[in-house]
Amino acid sequence: MKITRMKTNHIENPIGFYLGKPKVSFVVTDTNAIKQEAAQIKVALDENFNEMVFDSGKCENIDSLGYELNFELKPRTRYFWKVKVWADNGETAENTAFFETAKLKEAWLAKWITADLDNKINPILIKDFSVKKKVISARAYVCGLGLYELSINGEKANDEYLTPNYNAYNKWLQYQTYDITHLIRLGDNRIETILGDGWYKGRFGFEGGKSEIYGDKLSLIAEIVVQYEDGTSDTIISDESFKAKKSKIVFSSIYDGEIYDETLEDEKYYKVKEINLGLERLKERLSLPVVIKEEIKPIEIIKTPKGETVLDMGQNMVGFIRFKVNVKSGEKVKLQFGEILQEGNFYRDNLREARAEHIYISNGEEKVIRPHFTFYGFRYVKLSGFGEEINLEDFTGCVLYSDMEVTGHIETSNALVNKLFLNAMWGQKGNFVDTPTDCPQRDERMGWTGDAQVFSGTALFNMDSYAFFNKYSYDLLREQEDRNGMVPMVVPAVGMEGGGSSAWADAATIIPWNVYLYYGDKAILEQQFPSMKAWVDYIKREDEASGSKRLWTTGFHFGDWLALDGEDPSMPTGGTEESFIASAYYCYSSSIVSKAARVIGKEELAKEYETLSNEIREAIVDEYFSKNGRLALKNQTAYIVALFMDLVPENHRKRVAKDLNDRISQDKGYLKTGFVGSPYICRVLSENGYNEMAYKLLLNKKYPSWLYPVTMGATTIWERWDSVLPDGKISGTGMNSLNHYAYGSIAEWMYRNMCGINPTVKKPGFKNIKLAPMPDYRFKYAKASFNSPSGLYKSSWEIKEDGSLEFKFVIPFNCEAELILPDADLDKVYVNGKLLKETKINIQKLVSGTYEVKYMPIKSYIRYYNINMNLKELCVNQEVRRIISEEVKMPISEDMVNNLGDKAMPELAHLPFFNVTEEEMNRVDKRISNIKIDIEQ
């Protein structure tokens, strides 16, 4: 029995983070025990727990998902905490972790300083100091604007990049805390902080961006506290005793990259001056560190038809290239970054005005180089100035993203689906660089709320994302303060006015609720409830001001963004009525606010917003549904939203689900959905009796589909269904990112429906799950693993050669699952080798353990061809096609298959020009009914 994943506020051993009332959590592994009987948590100032500050005592009600430590924190203090767990089989285990506070309410002694230099120069701010006694501890408390890197005695003080991160700088400024004990030496020491423009001062924002959105000076505030063995300490503060010099960074920009000139030899020191930026905005960090999470090597050097030298990294990634360079003094090497080749040549027009390059001017010495204050989204790197002899080993792709543990994985028998899942994962890696961005490469890279909202469920399965979304949600809350509850389109808002679009702004309610559902920690609801309520109140005021009586019919909305069913091709808002989508989200968010209020003990508000939600639902039904349940709107997304957001009267759900299925069939079995409909379409189908259609949509390989980009060689998710055309040409440059994760939200369906792992409101945080895998005959197997906040879940299924189903499940310690087996006769189900009815196992309440379930399903999961399949599906199999040509007098041409292939032969028989008799169809059906459908086809 072991205790693992010990975290404080969902961060492992945090140093200098905002803690509020800290909550500690843990996971128990490696045990055959089923339940936690009791636990005890102790907190002390020392690793030996001699200086105790808190002891819960042995308690039965300590929740591993989060236990609040009820004592007053002191500034700049490391606390060690220990948990001991008693299990129901007599086993015990204990383990220790720590957290460390920052300055808390302690007054700043340091001053904001800036170099007395031209604002365009990237300075280094320097302080020399001497240490004459043995050091036991040293900490740096630092914020540098725009971006900074701190070094002590020539060594980088941490493994982070892009500090102090990307947030609403006009509202709050994060300072970081670093343990620099190992870098301080006896004698002379030097602190150096290099500054660059970043998000704060550099070019950023819409339409190519603008400079100095938040400020016009590169500045620093820093306190270095050195504690000695004799109990004394020194504090080095930023003030006018610092000095400055020019760095060799000639230029740096988030969008444009970096120019670094090693030949610059200006060793002159310049003065610094204090500036008044105020201290009230400084706050302990919320952002997770942005670090190099992976390193990948290029797979090939390409010589293009134009004679360019291009590295192929084999993967669309985000970060930078670290490279070795050895050229003559004064010679320049250049790296330019792009996502795709066009006609075999380097291409980056879809990056718009982002230059995305790294220029290095050598001083003649061999060096290993990387940029400082930028990042790139790329697969291909055009090299200039490196000479003819280029060694792949000299180049390394450094993958940057926020320091989150990967927690989920999906694998199936279909290689393309596996690649789709990985593409969604890589999309998350590339766009979770401190803030959930829409794209990581062009002149945008902003925290679009709609993208983050629709992908949040997938993100929370894929990675341990609580702290990440907590920071983003806090930024959203702060941005609402001056907007009367309205939520901007992007967070941080980077100086933008406006916002308030449905689905996008509903990130205010949906993201915190999803985080609570996945983690079972109501702290995020307590933090965000004012924001959640303010957003719904904003819509309510808009609704009432327009006299629309609980329908939201005013303002700008993105609609079903980039859907394919709009009447006007120039308008990307799709064909689903925007007021319907807006009203649906109005209802959905009101319901979430009601549920959140109930969780945090605000019962009166819970009732108020529950009533509001019901009123909106009734208004939607009156406006858009007939008495017989017919939805007035006929778009895929309209049906999806109505079903997913529980707008359909219960007695009409079956009809609306059937209408959705029929609508998709009318659309030849292909997606027409955009950012609103796509995340939920397969979930709605699977959960309303049309699982086969969900799999059909998943497995389509032609545009528009999830697998079309995979067949085109995509290694991330595209912004558009057809970002690249079948001939390999990019479909446009104005708005065409090849790393845009929103459509990767299909992975949530893979976890929840394909493999069946579902959180429940009854016991959030995966203490209790609904385990409802839904196999399909077109796969041999599928399996998911999810290292949830409560422990590791595994769920897999396999269709055996004899048609039987085999499931394997792992339920973690102290958790339960309600198992729903598809097409099962429970009297004939075997669990761990025994008939279920002969065991004491309750599948409605599976406890911790490993289970192997086998049975012959009532419905066959091995399929044979039949004439009720559509013509295109039949003609995929050459033997079936031969039989049709032998039995049917009318020739079945390729044009017929392409144009009418979505219809079955009995449907085609009603057409005047399709001369196929019933006798012919019966003969075909008899012969093909013995041919097993090849799932690979």
Automatic annotation (TrEMBL):
Residue ranges annotated for the Alpha-L-rhamnosidase concanavalin-like domain, each copy included: 303-401
- MF term (GO), any: alpha-L-rhamnosidase activity
A GO BP term here is: carbohydrate metabolic process
Where does the Bacterial alpha-L-rhamnosidase N-terminal domain start and stop, copy by copy? 133-273
E.C. number, please?
Answer: 3.2.1.40
Which superkingdom is the protein from?
Bacteria
One family from Pfam that matches here is Bac_rhamnosid_C
Stretches assigned to the Alpha-L-rhamnosidase six-hairpin glycosidase domain: 407-754
Recorded hits in Gene3D superfamilies, A to Z, give: 1.50.10.10, Galactose-binding domain-like, Immunoglobulins, Maltose phosphorylase, domain 3
Coiled-coil annotated spans? none
Q: Which UniProt keywords apply?
A: Glycosidase, Hydrolase
Reaction it catalyzes: Hydrolysis of terminal non-reducing alpha-L-rhamnose residues in alpha-L-rhamnosides
Q: Where is the Alpha-L-rhamnosidase C-terminal domain?
A: 762-829
Name of protein: alpha-L-rhamnosidase
Say which species the protein is native to. Clostridium felsineum
Taxonomic placement: Bacteria, Bacillati, Bacillota, Clostridia, Eubacteriales
